[in-house]
Amino acid sequence: MSGNTITTMNYYSLNKQAPNVTFDEAVIRGIAPDKGLYFPEEIPRLPASFWDTIEHLSKEEIACTAMKPFVGDTIDDASLLEIVTDVLSFDFPIIELEDQVATLELFHGPTMAFKDVGARFMARCLGYFLKQRNQKEEVTVLVATSGDTGGAVARGFYKVPGIKVMILYPSGKVSDIQEKQLTTLGENITAFEVAGTFDDCQAMVKRAFLDQEITNKRQLTSANSINVARWLPQLLYYLFAYKELKKKGKPLVFSVPSGNFGNICAGMMAHHMGMPVQQFVAAVNSNTTIPRFMQSGVYAPTLTVPTISNAMDVSDPSNFVRVLQLFENDLSTLSRKLTSYSYCDQVTRATVRDVYENCKYILDPHGAVGYLGLKEYLKGDTEAYGVFLETAHPVKFLPAIEPIVGKYKELPDQVKNLVKKGGITQKIANYEELKGHLTLIDS
Predict the structure, then answer these.
(1) The pLDDT value given to residue 420
(2) DSSP letters of 343-386?
(3) Which residue intervals define the domain Threonine synthase N-terminal in the entry (predicted)?
(4) How does DSSP classify residue 73?
């Protein structure tokens, strides 16, 4: 599963019924023709010198070193540096809350969510490839969101030439601010409000990719974390955290609030590339498919349960097949590196209150679930140092947060203007209605 840095990285479908492709083809296609997710044919091991000197490297140097093996020769070095410099134009601070516990804040980007990095990286890669090919045909980015993906993708692709974005989100199951991030941009961004759950939205997206009546008229790609350019850059968060925490000399534990499992899978990729990690904790809400799988070995998705940590309201996570592939589909091997716990809304709310009272720190609901998972794993472990990921700014979840911590006194700049705007959305009830929009050539 590992090898040295290679000039050309190929990607294969995890369904293994489609031709291997280069990075640019994988990005433009989004999903393989056999409905499988693309996966790198090799996992590069970064040299010992990289890990020895990482604390002296800039974000951009780390990003170029880590991403170059994956993009291969599809992006030249100068362009890759330009892309990552643009993408990483904000901070990723680590805030220590307790002796063994810190949070990695991933909400300092334009849409205040961890998905800003992946969405911006993918948008710039796709724009680069279309320009290199001098492609005249418009590409349609079709994406499902449980909350934060849609806003990050909309902002990342806003006004990018030659690209139209269509976002599906579940009606009544995203926060008001999340919905405004999807519906207020206009231009090349169209939002569809779906009568259903995120899993319904995701199923529609996957079905559209295989529908020749659509693909004969539109070139589709996806900006969900099923797309390699959305998924892989997320490994950078973990490298930035390792850079800051290496000096502690303690075994690291990462607790990741997990929905579609792209983020934690990217962290595991960083580990396979050589980053020392003692354990990953997949902290989930009341959608318990993965904790049950880790206990029983039976993968049995149920109906999606709506929660206050709505971005994790996923019962059938697409990226878990990649997690399994990283561990060669062996549950016992995976269990040595992955632990998964679930928490209900009642416990999540109580944790937001406790951390606010004890640490004067406001968690968002997803971060609270991550904190809970980390604390549970660290019970009795006095050696490890734990980091939980704060994946979105709490201001995006005011109806859940304000009854616990009180009224927000000052809204972030990213939110102030949104609150005043009216959004535009198109309501759809089923796949046939979506197909009607996608088969309209001038839509």
Answers:
(1) 66
(2) --HHHHHHHHHHHHHHH-----HHHHHHHHHHHHHHTT-SS-EE
(3) 10-86
(4) G
- Residue 439 pLDDT exceeds 50: yes
CA 50 vs CA 1, 3, 326: distances in Å: 20, 16, 22
Token representation of residue 159 = 């006004």
The neighbouring-strand residues paired with 182 are none
| Residue pLDDT, tens place only, 201-216 | 988 998 998 898 998 8
CB atoms within 10 A of CB 346: 9
Q: How far apart are CA 45 and CA 27, in angstroms?
A: 22
Average pLDDT over residues 124-143: 85
Q: How far is CA 12 from CA 25, 41, 232, 321, in A?
A: 11, 6, 15, 13
Residues 250-268 have pLDDT tens digits of 999 999 999 999 999 999 9
- 73-82 average pLDDT score: 96
- The Cα–Cα gap between 284 and 373 comes to 8
The CATH fold of domain 91-112+231-408: Rossmann fold (3.40.50)
Cα 395–chain centre separation: 19
pTM of the model: 0.90
Q: Please measure the distance between the N-terminal and C-terminal CA atoms of the chain and give it in whole angstroms.
A: 44
- Strands 252-257 and 385-390, by their bridges, are parallel
Please spell the DSSP secondary structure of 275-323, one letter per residue. Answer: ---SEEEEEE-S--HHHHHHHHS-----PPPP-SSGGG--SS-TTHHHH
The token duo for 217 is: 């008229």
Phi and psi of 12, rounded to 5°? -115, 155
